[in-house]
Amino acid sequence: MKFKIFIIIAILFYSCNMIGAGTHGLLKGYRYSISKKELETAVIKVIEKNPNIYRDTIDKDYYNDGITYLTIKIKNKDIENEYTFRYYGDQEDWKNSTYSEIFICYAYDKYGKGGSEGKGNFTKEQEKGLIDAFEMFFIDQLDRELNLNHIQDTGQ
Length: 156
What we know:
By secondary structure, this protein is an alpha+beta fold. 40% of the residues lie in helices and 27% in strands. Strands 1, 2, 3, 4, 5, 6, 7 and 8 form an eight-stranded antiparallel β-sheet that branches.
């Protein structure tokens, strides 16, 4: 009997670990009191207006589908960083929610140092530098475009 209980617990433990496997986590999130559609429109405007922000719209993949995930590059003087961020939620959330959020999933500098909360190849100082650059060159412009201040929601 004890052996059966042990097996059941072991299977449950293993299953729970498998469910969480492969997630990227988040480095930092930014919440706004607007719909996802409004946020998405502003994000695209910021990317299009800023010559230092580049998004490959031809090479689309899971992490650059333009709906859930966006991958952008920010270049300015010594900075050449790549960021993948995600809109929080799913289609149903986006239809019904009065707020929206983006969060950084992955961030890399020009030397390939970086990663995600779940798996990274960078120090806390490098992570902070990547986040600071994202905020300076993207989030601050997004706030201005929306005429709103984001709410720091999650992450660091």
